[in-house]
C-alpha cells in the first residue's frame, strides 16, 4: 500500500528557479520560507514537502488536502469585502510545528503519523470553477503554510485572477524577499499569524521571529492588504510587556493595520493552558489601543467582548460594520469606503455596496465531482 509520502512524491513539479539556488555538492538553497534551507541531495527541507532530487528542487503540485467555503470574516479579514464568501483550499506541510495547531491534520501530515487527511487530485481550473459555482468572491490558500506551496498557489491564483476573483494567503508570515516578490503580482490579501513577540517562543514553534517581522514590513510596503492575528495563549504570549511591544511594532508600520486578538482553546498537543477569557482579550485590546492602533478586534468569543467585534470610525466612533462572530448585522460604509457620519476614509478593500452574505458559517462545497480522493494503492 502506498504511503502518504509516496503519494505526494508523485505529485510534484520542479520549483520555480526564482525560489531556489544551486550550491556545491548537489545541495540547494530554498527561498520559499524564512528557514532558507540548504537541502542535501535526496532530502526534504524543514517543511517536509520541498525536496532535492538529483540537484533539482521539487515542490507540491496537483492536489488539495481539503476545500471549504468560509465567510471572509473567518480568515479573518474584517477590512476586505465584508460578507463575501471565501473558497479556501490547502495542501500539506508546514515550516513550523506549533503544538496548538488547529489544522494539524494537514500541516503536520508528514511529521505526525496521527495526522491523516487524504489528498484530493485537483487542478487550478477545477478549484476556480468550484469556487465560482459556490458564489465565492475570494480564493484563499490556507490550512497548511501556503508559502511552502507558493508555485501551486500562483498557478491557482493566475486562473482565479482571469476569472475575476480576489486572492488571499492565510500564513504564518515566515517569508523571504524572494517568495514575496514572486507572489506579489497574483496576491491581493495577506493575513499573518503573529504568534508572539519573543524569539524564544518562536524557537519553541520551530522558527525565528526576524524573518516574520521583516515579511510583515514588506507585505505592507508592497501594497497588499494586510491584517494581523495573535492567538492569545495564557502563560505563553500574553504578558503586558510582550503585547505592548507587538502592538507598538504594528503601529509603527501603520496604525491602520487591523489587529485581531483571538481566544485560545486547548488543541492538538497543547491542552494545559486554560482557555482564553473575554477579559484577557479586552486587556490586550486596551494595550493595542494605547499603542496607537486604530482597528483592533477581539475574536472567537462572540457577544462577550462588547463592541470590539465591530468596525468603528476612529474619528467619530460611529459603528460602520456591526458583527456577531462571522455574521454581518449592519453595514454602513459609503460606496467609496468612508464613514457616513464624518466622511473619514476607512482603510481596506471595500465593494461599492454591501452585497449581502451567502453564509455566516463555514460549509463544505456542494459540488464534489470536480475533485476526487487519491487512493492508496
Can you walk me through this structure?
There is one protein chain. Helix 8 packs across helix 9 (278-291). The chain has helices spanning 4-9, 104-107, 124-134, 150-162, 177-183, 199-205, 209-222, 240-253, 278-291, and strands spanning 12-14, 20-22, 28-30, 38-39, 51-53, 56-60, 63-64, 66-71, 85-90, 120-121, 138-141, 166-171, 189-193, 225-232, 259-263, 296-299, 311-312, 319-324, 327-331, 372-373. Helix 9 (278-291) links the parallel strand 15 (259-263) and strand 16 (296-299). The chain is of the alpha/beta class and 377 residues long. The chain is globular and about 65 Å long. The chain has 2 domains: 4-60, no CATH class; 63-331, TIM Barrel.
Quick overview of this protein structure:
The chain has 377 residues and is of the alpha/beta class. It has 9 helices and 20 strands. Strand 3 and strand 4 (38-39) form a beta hairpin.
Task: Give keywords.
alpha/beta, eight-stranded mixed beta sheet, TIM Barrel, 377 residues, 2 domains, three-stranded antiparallel beta sheet
**How many beta-strand segments?**
20
Tally of individual domains: 2
Q: Supply the CATH superfamily name of the largest domain.
A: Aldolase class I
- Under CATH, the topology of the largest domain can be stated as TIM Barrel
Tell me the Rg in angstroms: 20 Å
Mean of residue pLDDT values? 93
Q: Approximately how much beta-strand content do the residues carry?
A: 15-25%
Tell me, briefly, the overall form.
globular
Number of helical segments with 4 or more residues: 9
| CATH architecture field of the largest domain | Alpha-Beta Barrel
* Highest-level CATH class of the largest domain: Alpha Beta
Helix content: 10-25%
Helix and strand content put the structural class at: alpha/beta
Spatial separation of the terminal alpha carbons: 5 Å
Strand order of the largest sheet: 8-9-11-12-13-14-15-16
Taken in chain order, the helices and strands follow as HEEEEEEEEEHEHEHEHEHHEHEHEEEEE
Sheet bearing the most strands, described?
8 strands, mixed
Given as residue ranges, the uncertain stretches (5+ residues, pLDDT < 50) are none
